[in-house]
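User: Is it possible to get a 3D structure for a protein together with its bound compound? The compound here is zinc ion. I've pasted both below.
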Amino acid sequence: MAHVHTERELYAYWLGALAVRAEGENALRAAARSAFRRIRARLRDAALVEALTLNAGVVPPLEVADWARIVAGDLRPGSLASIRRGWARAFELIPGVEATAFDASDPRIVTLLARVLATSREIAETTAREVAEAYAPILAAGGTVDDLAAAVDMVMDSADSVRARTIARTASTATVEGGQRIGYEVAGVPAKRWLSERDDLVREAHIAADGQTVPVADAFDVDGESLEYPGDPAGSAGNVINCRCTTLPVLP
Ligand SMILES: [Zn+2]
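Assistant: Yes, that's possible. Here is the predicted structure of the complex:
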């Protein structure tokens, strides 16, 4: 007969998941901030060039593709390390199963990493658009390099604090939970169970999802969306951002 978890055990599982995520989040936040700092330095250089060519019909300060490349490049090592932590946690939760070697070239891991980095790129692109919008009136009015630099600082100050944290949180949830789900599959766990935060802050739809049990390769139905795990990049922002749910392996 399947083991029935006490509330105390479930809470311990949840705290454990959060600790693993926090570790990844700190590293990812540092990486996101360093990416934004590099972008800011390049924008300031670009502001000077643009101020010199203000009358010649000016181009965007830094191509959106450049932002995406810088952010994804800086977040890649931390994201992979975080997938690995989630993957290792799966084996810790399954008694009597030896952990196999982590293989970063496993197609499931490659796909997960690519999807997480794509989300980070999207958030960076939002910031790039904000800079372009802040530039537009300055360029139209024939502003100075100081005006452009001030616009850069205004957008990037908020990117450095708020957006770096959003990127880190979103990426750490998706990588740890996604890595853990791959670990279950590798370990031959038949099913997984959604475990919500069990406190007042949890969104209603995730309270409703608590206890939902599905085969490991299937998706949970969370608020009408298919999520393979909490933080699944396939979900909408409202269903994924700041989610603190996790999953449990359901053993035979
Ligand atoms: Zn949640």
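The first helix runs from residue 7 to 52. Confidence is low (pLDDT under 50) at residues 55-59.
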